[in-house]
Amino acid sequence: MTIYLPIAELPVAIFSLFAMGLAVGFISGMFGVGGGFLMTPLLIFTGVPPAVAVASVSPYMAASSFSGALSYWRKGMVDMPLAGALLCGGLIGTLAGVMLFLFLRVIGQVDLFIRISYTLLLGTIGTLMLVESLRAIRRTAKGRPAVVRRPGTRAWFMRLPLKMRFRRSRIYVSVLPVVIIGFTIGLLGAVLGVGGGFILVPALIYLLKVPTQTAVGTSLVLTLVTMAAATVLHAEANGTVDVVLALVLMVGGTMGAQFGARTGQSLRAEHLRLLLGLLVLAVAVRVAGELVTRPADTFAVSTVEKVR
Question: I want to staple 270 with a disulfide (CB 3.0 to 4.6 A). Which of 44, 104, 135, 136 is the partner?
């Protein structure tokens, strides 16, 4: 069964889109990540224009993070003051990202920018995860305990002014690095269509020393609000949100996440990180291949329309 995507201007098989949402939802539930960094490249591979893929993944990310954020909030695992500080930077970063996205569309370089950014981002993240997981597996095989950083160690940004006490997270840090982290996540979400949880959660845990469960719950709140804002801004400024595409992905992703969460609970943490690192690297290599391979049509004629 084929449906027509009005914004992407592309006929696609609805069951293929549904299966894609199901697969990415399964991976998201199994590894505890948002999945936007996988969904956007997959849509590009299927022929969806990168600008439409990035904007249409935003509502998918907002919907997928809503149930998780609500669940963590009910369990008292969301630090609302910390989420508020992150959102101060995150919303500004989202607005800046949409403006950058609009500028790249005007000069006709948005597709190239998205492909290069995904190659660099996923290649770096995947390599770091692969190295760390292999070290953890090697330590476990030799019977060595995990290397844990001493609680008393403090990074240089801990000495910055404007400190706040976040009681739920049991930390007392400057609000400046928190706002900067939020700005970065908002910018990445608007430009690349990623929720940023795979960057934000490690940053909260290892840089700010936030407890893991609280870091995950707070991250979901930031993803929910920034992705909802990105959806509205992309629809208004760029007109690139394909509602039909987003709706099909939402249904498949929601179902797949339930099965993925059950599967992930039966695997060891270091093995999960290893598999995710390999998956991220595989997507990075595939995106990089698109940059260097000769296109089927070496010449194309297109009209540049005035962007609102």
Answer: 136
134: containing domain: 2-140+156-292
Asked if residues 279 and 27 have their Cβ atoms less than 8 Å apart, the reply is: yes
The reply to whether 136 falls in a domain is yes
Instruction: Please report whether residue 48 resides in a domain.
Output: yes
Q: φ and ψ at 170, to 5 degrees?
A: 60, 45
Residue 151 in any domain: the answer is no
Q: Are 246 and 54 in contact (CB under 8 A)?
A: no
Total domains in the chain come to 1
Would you give per-residue pLDDT tens digits along the chain (308 residues)?
Answer: 788 888 877 888 888 888 888 887 777 666 656 677 778 888 888 888 888 888 888 888 777 777 667 777 887 878 888 888 888 888 898 889 888 888 888 888 877 888 888 788 878 877 887 787 788 778 777 776 555 444 444 566 666 677 778 877 777 888 888 889 889 888 887 887 776 766 777 778 777 778 777 877 788 788 888 888 888 888 887 788 888 888 888 888 777 766 766 665 566 666 666 777 777 787 778 777 777 776 555 555 444 445 44
Measured CA to CA, the distance from residue 147 to residue 153 in angstroms comes to: 14
- Calpha distance 282→42 (Å, rounded): 12
Q: Is 76 helix (H, G, I), strand (E, B) or coil?
A: coil
DSSP class of residue 252 equals H
Contact (CB, 8 A) for 68 and 234: no
Please provide the size of the chain in residues: 308
165 φ, ψ to 5°? -100, 120
Residues 6+ positions from 203 with CB-CB distance below 8 Å: 181
Domain assignment present for residue 169? The answer is yes
- Rounded-to-integer distance, Cα 24 and Cα 79, Å: 28
pTM: 0.71
